[in-house]
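HUMAN:
Sorry, I am quite new to this. Are you able to go through these amino acid letters and fold codes? The numbers rather puzzle me.
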Amino acid sequence: MANQTYKIWFVTGSQHLYGEETLRQVAEHSRTMVDTLNSSGRFTAGLVCTPTVKTSDEIYDIMLKANADPSCVGVITWMHTFSPAKMWIRGLKAFAKPLCHLHTQFNREIPWDSIDMDFMNLNQSAHGDREFGHIVSRMRRGVKVVVGHWQDECVLAKIDKWIRVCIAWADSAGMKIARFGDNMNNVAVTDGDKVDAEIRLGYHVDYYPIGDLAAYVDAVSQDEINALLEDYARSYDIAPNAAEGGRDRASVVEAARIEAGLRRFLTERGIKAFTTNFDALHGLHQLPGLACQRLMAEGYGFGGEGDWKTAALVRTMKVMAEGLPGGTSFMEDYTYDFDGSDSAILQAHMLEVCPSIAAGRPRLEVHPLGIGGKADPARLVFGTAPGAGVAATVVDMGNRFRMIVNEVEVVETKAALPKLPVAQAFWKPMPDLAVSAEAWIRAGGTHHTGFSKAIDAEFLADYAEIAGIEMLRIDARTTIEGFMKDIRLNEVYYKLFSLGY
């Protein structure tokens, strides 16, 4: 997935006012904190302890070095003592990476019997961090603020979420996205301004004729196909018609050929996400269903019907979630079960749902597909285990990108689905279907989402903050009145923002 060692720089602020002994203790405390946190193995990326910054020149220099180091994906700042914030202006103006402000102190509790003014002067982040916070706010600088003792589990969890988002943000810089075919059937919501997306989000979206992929598929060797067929046998239950000697075995063989060709095509070009289009399949014998599912499981982003924004979002969510349980997938709203307070949505897609969210061992099956006009495609069929999840989408609103996030609860289907030959999830959106669906529609949300049981809404809020894009959240507290107020206020904010205010 990431294939790179990332670092977070830990920058402590102070000043020369307090003397060398105090500065020595500040540096020792910072080193102890970083060493302790690194040895805990609690963070996805290692922390780098930098020298204490005490002047405007030192701050500017460290921020330029952080910008220039490709392994540095973000900076955590902490004001151990009082660090006059005007010293930070030049450095913050130059700094171009994610910023986290850790509001903490070295000691957990006040030493009531021994506290004196030397202790007070050394351990004064209670107002040193507020001075720093003012200038960050004054400069309208996006920042993650984490409050609490640096060894508390809730603090560590918030920092690691932010670190994972920083890695995902670094991964999205220059992310190459392949579109096999263009957007489908005049659909508006899955398209968007690809130039603005590259400016704001780092995505580089290229069109590739399906014939280019077909040439790779045609060049796949029998040995490559056999290796994949053996992997299928180890990894999945195989339906009788798809097993060796079954009447539809040729479809499984062809699916393996497509998978091998597609993987090589993406690998050679350094592509991290891709889309397909069932109106553009010239040269392929079936819609690439199984290949899309398995490549998603390896970490690729995917979007159906040319939906490059969702493909990129799925990739980004997978990077955030790497190593966490639960899985992440492309998903689509399909059909409702209206049942009062228990109303829910059946989620699926024609073929392309990632097996990372499967409740059990997936089953490899071959069935006809009523659209696309091609041979019966192979696919993995499974359900999704109950539990909390999050569904998100990014839409182009003309003057900005908007992320919409809905917290959901996956539940058991009310009965078996013997005639539905696709992977699926059945979930109740928060706070309920009626409010969720109305809010989603009023926000202009898509029918495609990135769905994950591995991450929560805080990850996506951090990402939106770093990217500088709008985020609307639908959760258990959402009301239509409050949601519409947020939309209207955001509209004013972004119009003023576009005018330079």
About this structure: The mean pLDDT is 95. The CA atoms of residues 128 and 368 lie 66 Å apart. The first strand starts at residue 7 and ends at 13. Residues 20-40 form the longest helix (21 residues).
